[in-house]
Design brief:
106 residues, mainly beta, six-stranded antiparallel barrel, 6 strands
Length: 106
């Protein structure tokens, strides 16, 4: 039996605003599910962000269609976390193409 192209187990993350006891709030990322994914076409470039050069890695991640996956969510595959810039379904709503950029690790 072949594994197929969806060979990476990834976590979907959604942002949540948490109120702090002393006032104010902070944003945390909560795991909302697991998906099997295929990561393709990773590219890299150097971009000037806030007068600093930073490496930006972009990737296309394919997963099975879920209408709950939207732009702004994150997907973590292994040690790498990506920000979902766009979620594009195919014509039959079977697969979902996620156009992503990497999120620097803290």
């Amino acid at each position: 039996m072949r594994v197929g192209p969806l060979d990476r187990r990834c976590s979907l993350l959604k942002s949540e605003t948490v109120k702090r006891p002393g006032g104010g709030s902070s944003v945390t990322w909560t795991d909302v599910g697991k998906v099997w994914a295929e990561i393709t076409i990773p590219t890299g470039r150097i971009a000037a962000v806030a007068d600093q050069l930073t490496a930006v890695v972009t990737a296309e991640i394919r997963v099975r269609f879920r209408k709950t996956i939207v732009a702004g969510m994150r997907i973590r595959c292994g040690d790498t976390t990506y920000l979902i810039e766009a979620a594009l379904p195919d014509a039959g709503r079977v697969m979902l193409r996620l156009l992503c950029s990497n999120v620097p690790n803290p």
